[in-house]
Amino acid sequence: MTMMRRGADWGCVALAVVLVTAGCSTLMSSATTGLADSLTGAILNQNDPETVRQGAPAYLLLIDGMIADNPKNTSLLLAGASLYSSYAGAFVDDHDRAAKLSEKGRDYGWRAMCTSDRSACNSWSAPYGEFEKAVSEMGVKELPVLYGAGAAWATWVMANKGDWAAVADKARVDAMMRRVVELDDSYDEGSAYLYLGVLATILPEAMGGKPEEGRLAFERAIELSGGHNLMAKVLLAEDYAKLVFDAELHDRLCQEVIDADPEAPGLTLINTLAQEKARALLAESRDYFGD
Prior knowledge:
The structure is a single chain. By secondary structure, the chain is mainly alpha-helical. Helices cover 72% and strands 0% of the residues. The protein has 14 helices and no strands. The protein has helices spanning 3-21, 30-44, 49-69, 74-91, 95-116, 128-136, 143-159, 164-167, 170-183, 192-200, 211-224, 230-241, 247-259, 268-289. α12 (230-241) packs parallel to α14. The radius of gyration is 18 Å and the shape is globular. The two termini are 19 Å apart. The model is unreliable at 1-30 (pLDDT under 50).
């Protein structure tokens, strides 16, 4: 599994979880709210990923136009961050395209942070101590921004995983997701834990990774979703079990995902993608772990 491929696989999570938590429907006009709710619901409950792959670019252009007309609208900026990072992570295999699209999502997220909290403006490029302080001072009202911007930034890190300068940003994303957990452990059924899990397992333990922290984070995400988010199990299998070479855990998790019912409100698309990935992982298991 190449580094970029792992980034794209993880981006599948973004497609389901970021769209729901960007807060894009709560602050817009009523007409825009209805459109956002309808499109988001249609995407999340779609059981044919190819339909989303072909249709999503039109929504990206729509969001770009809306942001151009309302450049300081936090909700629209979060929607843009969510859509661009989600599409880049889940459906774009070309490295250069994924990097470019995820960068746009990241930048929309940064702009959303600034419009939501002026004290956070440009904090993302400040020394880490200043950034951490700005994040620690953000409260419950900023949860959608913290999570949405952090998720978009994380997708950009994964799309540029071969660049150590980009990987260094994972500490800042980690700080944002930890703040989300501090403010509300169960926010969006614990989706922040998925990002904490992936960030902890980007690198092997010998290079500074924290696989056991990652395992605990993935397990907490599974618990908080009531086991309905099948991608959490796929990530536990791919990012943790493969990293520590636990074939039994890996194969058991993949089989559980394959045997599960993918239909769940707001999770049908991500669960369908999870099952596709679980089948691929199981098919490759013997080659990876050996007999």
